[in-house]
Amino acid sequence: MPELSPRRGVVPAIVAAAAIVALVVAAILVVEQAVPAAPAPRGEETKASGAVDLECPENEPITQGLLSGSTWTMCWRIDPDRGLVLQDVHFAPAGHEAVQVLAELSIGQLEVPYDTGLRNTEDITTQGFGGRQMMTLTETECLGERIETYVPKIGDGSMGGGGERRPVLCQEVVDGGIAYRSSDGAGTEVARRTDLRLATISKVGWYEYVSQYTFGSDGSIRSDLGATGDLSPEDYGDDPAHGWPVGPGDTDYATSHSHNAVWRVHWALGGQGGQVVEQYDAAPTGEQGPRSPLVEGGLTRIPRESTAEAADRRWWRVMNPDVRNADGHQISYQVELGATTPFELTKDHQHKGRNADGAGYAVAFTEADDCQLFATANKEGTCGSGVLDFAQDEAELSDVVTWVAVGFHHVARDEDQSPMEMHWQGFTLTPRDLTAQRADPPSAREDVNGKPPEVP
Ligand SMILES: [Cu+2]
């Protein structure tokens, strides 16, 4: 059975270099706070690296070492519809060999229905985040490296129309704050962290969206959609039930609306296929223990294509049952929604005539299919019109795609004009048992794995 093998004592030169760059960036970012010196690299510097050699079809691979000694490597491209698409995402935890996490990550739809019922857009499939909508970045939008790629003006460029190489991807190493702090009789262990951040900006109508992915030194992947730009000038009324007055006195009710985002996460944890999906739930039993209420939790396998709703204390994980960490635990990643506004995509509601309460899915799991790319209005009609269609045959899950729905109900404020301050929505994929301990324990904690010995 394959095992994620430790690679202790080997710190790539690229990590040291990245750490220096990261510290410079952090020093620029943090004006008033002193940034502590980087912790000494673990072991001696050698040419070995956690980076993997990727053959990327369109652009040079992105490889980034972080302060912790962990490294991310992946391919990227700009899709006319989906905008930034990340592929072959690999993570090498500090001191370990690289493991593939994702086959692909991108947005799968962005619907913006207005509360009056008078307007609705499906921004990804009607206008798209790529092409002319993909904005050229300047130094103000990107403190890191601005990376160029060829962006066709029309579709994928195969119909002509020209295009040009433009800097559209921002690659930054950002200060991630305090990674950990723990003090005991022997002293204080504390470290900051750095994260890799990739972002593009797409202008669709009056809104400008930031597609941002943050790859943590702990192996986490955070997907965020930021919205700025301006409130749509066409969408004002005088109805307090559907808007908020942003003009003087009781005037100019900007119409409330939702930004309903669905991301498409195609897994390849430890290799593509053979993935297992589980849902975790915990609930109070109603019984009282001597000091606190009893709570029971556990996992339920999701063997087939399906949708699931959010609930208190609920999360999901995608696991590779054939790869174990040094503790013998199967490696997995957890899908964490955080706070979100539940929604049912308008097309799903019209198509299925489903839930009257408008509650759709928080996550959906489908078997990967290269023509199933969009949560609704999927362009390849032959393989289904959207997620509910894809999941309808309840195929057995192995090559798993997770669709993650995160909503934001936007009730405008005076401060939204003008321009609008950025508002964010997103979710996190967090490693669970990828390594037997934290990937980068300080030397005093290297032996902590399980219940520590009794302290006298
Ligand atoms: Cu809005």
Automatic annotation (TrEMBL):
<keyword id="KW-0186">Copper</keyword>
<protein>
    <recommendedName>
        <fullName>Amine oxidase</fullName>
        <ecNumber>1.4.3.-</ecNumber>
    </recommendedName>
</protein>
<dbReference type="InterPro" id="IPR015798">
    <property type="entry name" value="Cu_amine_oxidase_C"/>
</dbReference>
<keyword id="KW-0560">Oxidoreductase</keyword>
<dbReference type="Pfam" id="PF01179">
    <property type="entry name" value="Cu_amine_oxid"/>
</dbReference>
<comment type="similarity">
    <text>Belongs to the copper/topaquinone oxidase family.</text>
</comment>
<keyword id="KW-0801">TPQ</keyword>
<dbReference type="InterPro" id="IPR036460">
    <property type="entry name" value="Cu_amine_oxidase_C_sf"/>
</dbReference>
<feature type="region of interest" description="Disordered">
    <location>
        <begin position="432"/>
        <end position="456"/>
    </location>
</feature>
<keyword id="KW-0479">Metal-binding</keyword>
<feature type="domain" description="Copper amine oxidase catalytic">
    <location>
        <begin position="70"/>
        <end position="433"/>
    </location>
</feature>
<dbReference type="InterPro" id="IPR000269">
    <property type="entry name" value="Cu_amine_oxidase"/>
</dbReference>
